[in-house]
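Model it.
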Amino acid sequence: MRVGPGLIVLSLAAAANGSDAEVSAPESGLPEITAESAVVMDADSGAVLFEKNAGAPRYPASTTKILTALLLIENCSPDEVIMAPLDSPEVTGSSLHLKPAEGITAEDALYALLVRSANDVAHAVARHISGSEEAFAELMNSRAEEIGCRNTYFINPHGLHHDQHVTTAYDMALIACEAMRHERFRDAAGTRRKWIERSLVPQDRLLISRNRFLNEPGAEGIKTGFTSPAGRCFVGSKSLDGWRVISVVLSSEDWLADTNALFDWTSETLERRTVFGAGDLVGAAPVKGGARPVVRGRAERDVRAILFRGGPDRGVSIEWRELKAPVLDGDRIGTIRLAAANGEAVEVPVLAAESVARAPFWRSPFAWAGALGLLIGVAFAGHRLLNRA
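Modeled.
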């Protein structure tokens, strides 16, 4: 499991490499799906909430275009014009029917990729950015590796079948998480209908999504895919009361039913809870030599946890530093640690919520010891003087 800052799954652990998941819920409570590979992932952190063969190599079909769209956003301004290559009519499958040398803006190309799933537009984007599909595939694979994908190797920008064009459910979820961080991608991925401008075929300007998942409450889109070797594929994003969750199903008999089953299980079984909010008081640490014996601590940032719905906050501890006065407001004085059942952990600093000055000299035990010593010394000297007299 990949766990990001400030968030951890306390009660559910799943292997991201396709090995058996360590799930503490009863097996009967797990979602039943037909997909050969599947994963559910927290979009903020990349934490795996559920997986089935998530590390197994699969053909992604048109879900490939998620990465193509991400690279388009990262490499082209919205009003940049993309010209269709002369061989555009040779690209098979779903198409915008681009004419050779026809121009569309990068923004319209983005919608053509995610709403129409246009293979010829993916080809044009690849040629525009990298000069060739081969060079663009190298860029795709490099970017996928940067995102954290370890089992993805793309040959083309559209997902038309190639025996070596493979990924995993886990890797596709990581790519989707990265893409959904971009507002332009989110807007396009959730669009049902879009009018675009084009220079040579003005009669074909309306894009209509066939993504039936968009009819579901909270659905944010992302991308369908199908080829005979790949089967039905879908990468989806959904907001569960403001909590963005990503799902992937590859080689599915019914991608929509599988996707809904995964999201239903997630919303019914898990919840994202704020254990501590940024600035919340979390306890107090002892201070040596301070005007006060302790200093109160506050969480530096939100500490969120994914828990079984209605379950307790577990695995939370605070480790305090050894402190000597003075302590200034904002000093780091400790660490909040959240430990999951599988050994994963997250750490969030605890900052001083107030300043604690040094204790006045007269309150110091050393001061009293010195004063007592002085008094004893004076008394002893007086006794000697009296004896001499």
